[in-house]
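About this split. The held-out portion is used to measure sequence recovery: a designer receives only the structure tokens and must propose an amino acid at every position. Recovery is the fraction of positions where the proposal matches the reference. Here is one held-out target exactly as it appears in the evaluation file.
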């Protein structure tokens, strides 16, 4: 065996140094410069595999044929990693561009919707404060006295406007305890809670000095809370949030979601309260169903019937309402009902852009004068209200 290996090494040495470009191993032409150990490996495999491996790894050019020892694999991995990183960067950039595009579109549509809502407010003020002359009263108008809903069309959208005279709400400064309590019950409060809240409102607006136990308990509550009751007229509707028992949920309302019914809104009492009417009378053309239920003698059926009938045409008088409803109004209710309007209106305008789901809502409180240099004055402006 040793003689064969010796002869094999001598033969390999001679083959490696042969000037000819042919191999005698297979009889096929072999290009010049091709390592002769390739042919030797094939012949030596049958004799001694370890010799062929040794010679293969020891050859100077074997690094080119062995991936584990070459640089080609490392370069390929580097290129693939770089391409992967570039793809990830491109995807991230694409997502960022999409977000920025959606944001820009939303801002544009939100600005347009706000302009439509503001236009709706101005259109309502024009109809309320600047009515047409008597000889043009029969011409078509966006709004008529007693009407609460107005649709103002524009080229690129519309504004849905709700006009409510403040006589359609309960005045915090003059409404009685029982009437306030009935309103709170109509908005979902339990009778004891509604009664306590009405008493707390009356205590807040009444002069100081009452020494009954109820007033002393309220004074202790406010003292522990770090502030004192006003003992004066309410300066704003939102001031009632400081009264004991009035929470934000009660004032603003809540929204509940269920799979069966979807989103169900419970409107708060804030939209039924005012400080501008100065009267205990309730306007039947503007009052919500909850405000109508605050009137003594008015039940659910009558309140619902009033709301339904006035949607066809505003009532001209209480007698007109009784005739159209074909009922006799309760005697207890008559002292609390009216169709007369005060000079203050709440205007809620919702702007909608055609083909967009974006909405913007504006609420304005406007005082209207029958004469003078300025026939209207905006005393309150609220952006993005939830009413």
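Reference sequence for scoring:
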């Amino acid at each position: 065996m040793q003689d064969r290996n010796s002869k094999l090494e001598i033969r390999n040495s001679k083959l490696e140094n042969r000037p000819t470009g042919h191999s005698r191993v297979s009889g096929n032409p072999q290009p010049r410069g091709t390592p002769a150990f390739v042919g030797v490996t094939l012949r030596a495999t049958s004799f001694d595999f370890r010799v062929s491996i040794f010679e293969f790894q020891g050859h100077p050019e074997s690094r080119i044929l062995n991936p584990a020892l070459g640089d080609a694999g490392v370069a390929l991995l580097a290129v693939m990693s770089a391409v992967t990183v570039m793809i990830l960067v491109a995807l991230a950039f694409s997502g960022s561009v999409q977000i920025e595009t959606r944001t820009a579109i939303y801002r544009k549509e939100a600005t347009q919707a706000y302009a439509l809502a503001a236009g709706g407010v101005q259109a309502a003020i024009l109809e309320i404060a600047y009515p047409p002359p008597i000889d043009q009263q029969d011409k078509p108008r966006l709004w008529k006295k007693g009407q609460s809903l107005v649709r103002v069309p524009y080229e690129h959208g519309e504004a849905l406007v709700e006009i409510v005279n403040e006589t359609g709400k309960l005045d915090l400064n003059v409404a009685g305890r029982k009437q306030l309590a009935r309103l709170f019950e109509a908005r979902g409060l339990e009778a004891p809670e509604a009664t306590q809240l009405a008493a707390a409102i009356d205590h807040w607006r009444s002069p100081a000095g009452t020494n009954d136990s109820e007033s002393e308990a309220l004074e202790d509550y406010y003292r522990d809370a770090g502030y004192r009751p006003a003992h004066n007229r309410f300066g704003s509707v939102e001031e009632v949030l400081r009264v004991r028992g009035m929470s934000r949920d009660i004032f603003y309302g809540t929204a509940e979601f269920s799979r069966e019914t979807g989103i169900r809104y419970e409107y708060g009492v804030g939209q039924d309260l005012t400080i501008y009417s100065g009267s205990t009378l309730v306007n039947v053309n503007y009052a919500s169903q909850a405000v109508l239920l605050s009137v003594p003698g008015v039940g659910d059926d009558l309140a619902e019937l009033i709301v339904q009938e006035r949607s066809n045409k505003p009532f001209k008088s209480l007698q007109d309402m009784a005739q159209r409803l074909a009922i006799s109004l309760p005697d207890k209710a008559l002292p609390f009902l009216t169709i007369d309007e005060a000079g203050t209106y709440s205007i809620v305008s919702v702007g909608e852009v055609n083909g967009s789901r974006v909405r913007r809502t504006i609420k304005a409180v406007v005082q209207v004068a029958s004469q003078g240099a300025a026939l209207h004055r905006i005393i309150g402006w609220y952006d993005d209200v939830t009413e």
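Annotator remark: The first strand starts at residue 149 and ends at 153.
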